[in-house]
Design goal:
The protein is an all-alpha fold. 47% of the residues lie in helices and 1% in strands. It has 17 helices and two strands. Bound molecules: zinc ion. It is an enzyme of class 2 (transferase).
Length: 419
Amino acid sequence: MDSSFTPLRCLSDQHALELFKDDNVETVTSVEQKKVERSVQEVFSVYQQNHTLSQPTLLRDQHYAYLKKGLRHLSDAYECLDASRPWLCYWILHSLELLEEPVPASICSDVCGFLARCQSPTGGFAGGPGQHAHLAPTYAAVNALCIIGTQEAYDVINRQTLLDFLYSVKQPDGSFVMHVGGEVDVRSAYCAASVASLTNIINPTLFEGTPSWILRCQNWEGGLGGVPGLEAHGGYTFCGMAAMMILNKVHMLDLKSLLRWVTSRQMRFEGGFQGRCNKLVDGCYSFWQAGLLPLLHRALFKEGESTLSMRNWMFDQQALQEYILICCQNPAGGLLDKPGKSRDFYHTCYCLSGLSIAQHFGSKDFHHEHIVGKEENRLAPTHPIYNICPEKIAQAIEHFHQLPVPVHREEAASAPELP
Ligand SMILES: [Zn+2]
């Protein structure tokens, strides 16, 4: 492991050289960028004044208290997320597994009961009990249940109706709509591929045409847009790339141009990532963007790329950790987008997930840790495709792969009847 006493990048004398230069052409976005850099610079210098030893600390106890409370009670501010309740379960449970904080069995059982009530009678999960099934909460619910990883959790998932639901949102061109009558975008392909692969319901027709459709979302920038023809965006790029990994078709993408695009999204001064070109840093892209680098590393390695490092991802892992630890922690627990923003469970989950990606390179024999600050800052590793801890993925796959792949009922019904 690397020394914990590596001097902080953000406190070095040369760091100010990384500040944004507008070449005397002021625009709305250049003004915003400078404003953010000033606030980040202030946070870095306050940190420097208050700490003689430059070892930023992950506020574990505070984050734990914030997350534990959220599992039982949410303030009125979360009313707007009433249609995203399985997401709250996933964001909190995944944050807790990264912090290696166990969840009491009784709470796990309550979460299973709640998610069972979110499951639609026609398959898939809805944002809350009695709502319509939607691919995003379906992804979140299946991930949350796999994190819990008990028989009770696995038994919540009705695999036959889940498959029916996936067919009901599948489009003739290979794409998926988010819900029946809803919009198409590349998130849906990832959500569908993720839940179908975890629960072992993939059959030969389910993803027919999907890789070619995803490929159409990659544009001249190198990243992927939400649908063909749109601007490249971190969240959509992650979804498209991760779906291609699951479907074993990642070689269809232009990996080098994707690599160039994503590495240019790490901000020189702040150390965190922006979601799109010319946008501001945001803590949640610590996962959506940095999480692409382990996927690219694996894909390029498989293609026989010989110049890959066996110790580091192709982004500045130290700079990202400094940004998350110094700029994105609320002192009372929870993590956030950027200084001045408030904490929430979404940013807590994706800042911690990005921190974990930046701390752990590779897996098994090639595992190498680079932890900024004390050893206590170490989080559990996360699986870069599913964003759940790898043991839970292995356990879920082992469980569901003992079960037969359900038959698509429409196909079965249209098969010629025997005399
Ligand atoms: Zn964000």
